[in-house]
């Protein structure tokens, strides 16, 4: 599945971070969990390869435009596979469309079933999403 892959997660929810660890660490993924985009961003510019980024929409706040522009322009962020997790209310703001239009990106809505999450991650890691 995702063995020996480095995944950077940006999510303000400690509960969600625990869920990601539970679902992905058991498959051999190495997770780097941060609570804010600014804390996660430096990991994409280090020597260690990041195979996937998971961004929960709860990290954007009022900076969604700024953050999406930075992701689109930063080569290291632009090129990595990205999974954006949005809540239902984000659709009204147009966030799923905006985030899904970024290079190498996929969007899922929460709440989601753990099996759906693992399936999306597996496909992204295999390059089939």
CATH class: Alpha Beta
N-to-C span = 14 Å
Low-confidence stretches: none
**Radius of gyration, rounded?**
13 Å
* Principal-axis shape: globular
Oligomer: single chain
Q: Helices and strands: which structural class?
A: alpha/beta
Tell me the count of domains.
Answer: 1
CATH fourth-tier homologous superfamily: Response regulator
Discrete helix count: 7
Q: How is the CATH topology named? A: Rossmann fold
Biggest sheet character: 5 strands, parallel
Summarize the structure.
By secondary structure, the chain is an alpha/beta fold. Helices cover 42% and strands 22% of the residues.
Provide the descriptors you would attach to this structure in a database record:
129 residues, single chain, alpha/beta, five-stranded parallel beta sheet, Rossmann fold
Helix and strand layout, with pairings?
Layout: E1 6-10, H1 14-25, E2 30-34, H2 37-40, E3 52-56, H3 64-73, H4 75-79, E4 81-87, H5 90-93, H6 95-100, E5 105-110, H7 114-126
Parallel strand pairs: 1-2, 1-3, 3-4, 4-5
Q: Could you walk me through the main structural features you see in this protein, from its secondary elements to its overall organization?
A:
By secondary structure, the protein is of the alpha/beta class. It has a single domain, classed as Response regulator (Rossmann fold, 3-Layer(aba) Sandwich), CATH 3.40.50.2300. It has helices at 14-25, 37-40, 64-73, 75-79, 90-93, 95-100, 114-126; strands spanning 6-10, 30-34, 52-56, 81-87, 105-110. The protein has a five-stranded parallel sheet with strand order 2-1-3-4-5.
